[in-house]
Amino acid sequence: MARVNRQILLRKRPVGVPVAEDFEAAEAAVGTPGPGEVLLKNLYLSIDPAIRGWMSNARSYLPPIEIGAPIRSGTLSQIEVSNDDAWPEGQLVQALAAWESYSVVPSSSLHGRVRPIEGIPLPSMLSVLGGNGLTAYFGLLEVGRPEAGQTVLVSAAAGGVGSIVGQIARIHGCRAVGLTGSDDKCAWLVNELGYDAAINYKSADLRNALKESCPDGIDIFFDSVGGEILDVALTRLNRHGRVVLCGAISQINATERPPGPSNYLQLLAKSARMEGFTTLDFAGRYDQAREQLARWIFSGELRYRDEIVEGLEQAPLHLLRLFSGEHRGKLMVKLADPEG
Ligand SMILES: NC(=O)c1ccc[n+]([C@@H]2O[C@H](COP(=O)([O-])OP(=O)(O)OC[C@H]3O[C@@H](n4cnc5c(N)ncnc54)[C@H](OP(=O)(O)O)[C@@H]3O)[C@@H](O)[C@H]2O)c1
What we know:
Blueprint: E1 4-10, E2 23-29, E3 37-46, H1 50-55, E4 72-82, E5 92-98, E6 102-106, E7 112-113, H2 131-144, E8 151-154, H3 162-171, E9 175-180, H4 183-191, E10 197-200, H5 206-213, E11 218-223, H6 227-234, E12 237-245, H7 265-269, E13 273-276, H8 286-299, E14 306-310, H9 315-324, E15 330-334
Parallel strand pairs: 8-9, 8-11, 9-10, 11-12, 12-13, 14-15
Antiparallel strand pairs: 1-2, 3-4, 3-6, 3-15, 4-5, 5-7
Helix pairs in contact: 2-3, 2-8
The protein binds NADP nicotinamide-adenine-dinucleotide phosphate.
């Protein structure tokens, strides 16, 4: 009897914040890989804001998910059948696959082998040693280029990426200031992760709070939020400051084109720069970054939090939690344990 592949499909393109009706649970036969392809058993799904972007029609660095196709997702997977000698069966991999139990993908699209590290839980290979850690590492160090003594402001600071950025800034001798949406998360940033200060952007007067928390101005703004927060932060940017454009989650569900940052002339006045990046820009250097991140974890300089939930059917609900901020650290959905 054909094995069943459980899937979550894109039923229709969301307007604004996605709703349950935009998704559809389905079952299909497990696919058979063709030449140069592999059959993956998906073990963990990475719940990322980028998925919301791929659900829309907007032109981006990847094409939109097609209507009726499974929701695209970063995964930690195990190769079950391989038609490429370079990718042996049983190998754990990071992949761009989908919200489904099994995926057939070209081996050329695999993001890399996962070599478990003793003392680090397997799903953390998808979080702090996967997309989130790599985004924080390359975004801050390569785009932001921090120097000791500088002030680094981080938005979405209690999330998967942001919770790592501030700690890397601290490791490099910077003052780290985080923006997040609750007092509890602020306390977590300062007391557990070593941020120097944290601001609850929902309750604070942001202009005054930034003056207080960044008395010497902002040298690097690592921004994952955009919108009003970006505009206000620009006013405190120092000469030769850098704005690292990591994401714009405040705009991701917008139904109208967002206004540009009205304070952009601050970049001119401060001889500053704003630079976007995607983690894929640094694909050839992932192993080097992972080694460094692992060293910081083992030395106790880098802490992280994974929130792992179970059940493919719940994946859409967990995607929505990224927009309400009801999580800390990295959100993942567990589908299965590895074999062998
Ligand atoms: N450039 C790249 O290659 C790359 C790679 C990965 C991720 N990213 C980007 O990095 C950002 C963070 O991703 P992540 O996976 O680590 O997600 P995350 O930070 O774990 O989750 C998103 C967080 O954003 C905050 N947020 C949501 N809506 C907001 C709003 N309207 N205003 C202000 N804050 C809001 C929420 O926290 P609060 O409680 O603090 O509001 C939420 O927890 C996203 O923008 C993502 O697109 C970029």
